[in-house]
Amino acid sequence: MKTVNILRDLNLNIVDNYFEVLTPDYIFIPIVDENYIIIKLNTHILKGQLVYDDNNIKRYSSVSGIALKIGKLNNKKYLIIKNDYKELSISKRARNVDNISKEVFLKYYSNDDIKKILDNKIHTLYINAIDDDPYIYNKYMYLKNNIKDISDIINNLLRLFAIERVEFVIKDSYRDLLNDYKININYNIVNDIYPIGNDKLLRKYLINRDDDFLINIEDILDMVYEVKKNKPILEKYVTINGNLIDNPSVINVKKYTYLKEILSKFNIKEKNYSIILNNSLCGKNISLNDCIITSDINGVIINKNNNNVKMECTRCGLCYDVCPVNINPLIKSEKCIKCGLCNYVCPSKIDVVKEYQDD
Amino acid sequence: MTNYLKSKYSNISIITKYYIIILLLTIYATYKNGILLYQKELINFISILKPAFLVLLAIFIPFIISYIYYKYLKKEEYHILNDYNLVLFPLVAFALPLQINIFLYIGIILLFSIIKMAFKTNIINYYALMKLVIMFIIYLLGKYSYLTIYDLNIETNYTTLDMFLGNGIGGIATTNIALLIICYLILCITKSYKKEIPIISLVSFFIILLLSCLIFKNNIILDIKELITSEFIYGIIFISTISFYSPIESKKKIIYAILVGVLSYLFNKIINPFEGIFFAIIVTNLIIFLYEIIEKRMKNEHK
Fold first, then answer.
1. What are the distances in angstroms from CA B75 to CA B72, B78, B136, B151, B193?
2. Run of H or E residues at B181
3. 3-state secondary structure of A113
4. Domain-by-domain residue ranges, chain B?
5. Per-domain residue ranges of chain A
6. Contact check, Cβ <8 Å, A280/B1
7. Å from B86 to nearest chain A CA?
8. Between chains, do A347 and B14 touch, taking CB under 8 Å as contact?
9. H helices of A86-226, where?
10. pLDDT tens-digit profile of A170-209?
11. Do B2 and A134 touch (CB under 8 A)?
12. How far apart are CA B39 and CA A319, in angstroms?
C-alpha cells in the first residue's frame, strides 16, 4: 500500500491529554422537520430523553433542561435546550452481560450491518482501532479509557458467536495500551502510516480470507452502550488539535454542544486562524459560529493560514504516486476516498482534493 | 492560501537541484569551451565567458518575461524561486552549438518565453521544440555545425572513452556522459523526478538497435558509436523528463519512455543523432495526446 509517514515527516506527537467538557450552557439538536419533534417547547427534558424521531433519525437530549426554542444557525434548524446542570436522566439499569444470551445480545444491538457479519462463521474479526488522521486520537483514547467495557464485549462476542479469533488493529505507537487488556485477544500492529486507518484500505490490506471481517472500535463502543449500559450515546470524543493549539487534547463532550463553547477552554495562539473538521489534510473549513458537535465530528483542527504559495501544477505526478486507491487525483474520480494525501505531498501546494475531486 | 497539513517538500527544493546541475554544467562548459580553447590560444580571454553568458541570458530573458507577465498583466505576485522557466531554458541552451549567433539565440528565447506564457499547454514539449526551431533556422542559414574551433583544428578521431569523458562533438555542455550520469543521480534524489523514463528509453533504444543490427546485419559497435550520442543521453535525462510534458500515470509513463527510446533510434538514424531525441520527444507528446483523447472517448462510450 502506498502510504506516507506523516508523523515522522512533520515530527508530530501523539495526543495523550484527555479531559471532559460535560456542562454546556445550551445544546443544539439538529432537526430536519419540526413535525418530528416529539416534545413540547418550554417543558423540562430529561437527559437521554428522545426528542426527535423521524423514523430514520432518533435524537436524544444529552443534558437535562428546558427546551427553549427552535433556532437557526447557518440556515440549519436546531432545537435549543438550556442545560439545568442537574443531569436528571431516564433511569435505566445497566445489564449484566456475563451470562447474556445471543438472542438478547442481538435484540438490543441495533446495527444491522454488524449483525449480518456476526451471522457468519468468522475466522478472524479485526477491530480497526486506528485513527484516520495524523491529528486525531479518539480511538486511541477509547482504547485507553474503556478497557473494562471493551473487554466485556469482546469476551461476549467470543462466547456468543462463531468467532475463532479477535484481533485489534493498532498503530505501532498504540502498542503499550494493550498491555492492560486481560482477555484472549490478539493484536495486529501496523506502521504509523497514513491513511492506513481508512476502513476500506485496511480491509484491502488485512483481509485475505472470505471468513475474515473488519469492524470498527466505534461499533464495539455502540455495543457497550446499547447492550451493556442500556442507554443512548450522549457523549462524544473529539480531538482538538492543530498548529495553533497549545494543549492538544482529546475531550469528551456532550453531543450537540456549541463548538465555540468548547474552544473557549483552549488557548489558541493567534487570532487569525482556520477551523478544519475531521481531516487535517483536506477537511471542510468551517466558521466558529456554525459548528455543533454531532456524531460525525471526530476532530477540530485549528491551524494558522500558512504562507505556502499555491503555484500552478507541474504535473510532477507525486499525487498519483502516493494515491492509495491508484487514481490520478488530477482527474475527478468516484473512487477517491478523500484522504488528502495528494494535498499533502503536492510540491506546488495545491489543494488537489478541493480543486479536482470536490463537487 | 491554504491551512491544511503540507509536507515540507516544495517546488523550491526541486528547482534548487536543477540550479546545482546548471552550475555543474556551466563550470564544465566554461572549462571545455572556454579555458581549454584559451590555453590553446584559439580564443581570446573574453570568449572564455561565452558559455556562462549564454546560460545567464537563458535565465535572464525568461525572468523578465515572467516578471512582466505576473506583475503587470496578471497583477499577481511573481515568485522567482518557484519559476521552472529559469532552470528549463538554460537546459536547452546547454544542448545548442557554441557557435550559435547571439541575436538568433536571444530572439528565440524571447519568442518562446512569450509563447510559453501565452499558450499554457502540456501537449508539446516547448523546450524540445525550441531547440529544433533554433537548429532549423541555423540550418536554413547554412551554419549548421556543432564543431568548436578546437574540433575544427584537430585531425584525429575521438575514441569512445573521449566521448564518455567529454572530448566529443555536441552542445555547449552535453558532451560529457560521465557528468550527465552524475547529474542524473542528483535528479534521482528528487522525489518528483521521473527517473524511470531515461532508463526505459535507453533500454528500448538498445533493444531496437540490437534488433536492427540483427535484421540488417549492421556492425553493432559502429551503430552504438554513431547513434548513442551524448546529445541523446542529455535529451532523455533532462528534456524528456520535464514534468509538464511527460505523463503522470505509470502505464502512460512506460509507453512514453518506450516511444521516446524507439523513435529516438529512428530519428537518430533518419535525421541525425544530435536532434533525433528532440524530434522523438515531440512526436511522442503527440502520440500520447492522441492516446489520451481515444482513452477519454472510450471511457465515455463505456459509461
1. 5, 9, 36, 49, 31
2. helix B177-188
3. helix
4. 10-188, 194-303
5. 18-90+234-304, 94-229, 318-357
6. no
7. 14
8. yes
9. 102-108, 112-118, 138-145, 147-160, 199-206, 217-223
10. 888 887 776 766 555 678 888 888 898 999 999 988 898 8
11. no
12. 50
Residue A164 identity? E
| Residue B189 near residue B17 (C-beta atoms within 8 A) | yes
Those residues with Cβ within 8 angstroms of residue A81's Cβ, 6 or more apart along the chain or in another chain: A26, A27, A29, A45, A51, A61, A63, A65, A66, A67, A68
> B243–A316: do the CB atoms touch at under 8 Å?
yes
Any residues with CB less than 8 A from the CB of B73 and at least 6 apart, and which? none
Contact A84, A26 (CB under 8 A): no
Residue-wise pLDDT tens digits, A217-233: 999 999 999 888 888 89
Return the half-sphere exposure (C-beta side, CA atoms, 13 A cut-off) of residue B179.
Answer: 25
Rounded distance between C-alpha atoms, residue A155 and residue A164, angstroms: 12
- The C-alpha angle with vertex A129 and arms to A127 and A132, in degrees rounded to 5, equals 125
Distance from the B122 Cα atom to the nearest Cα atom in chain A, whole angstroms: 9
What's the alpha-carbon Rg for chain A, to the nearest Å?
A: 22
Q: Which CATH architecture has domain A94-229?
A: 3-Layer(aba) Sandwich (3.40)
| Ramachandran category for residue B179: left, alpha or beta (phi over 0 → left; psi -120 to 50 → alpha) | alpha
Q: What spatial distance separates the first Cα and last Cα of chain B, rounded to whole Å? A: 37
Q: Reduce the DSSP state of residue A129 to 3 states and report it.
A: coil
Residue numbers in A near B245 (CB within 8 A) = 315
* Model-level ipTM above the cut of 0.90: no
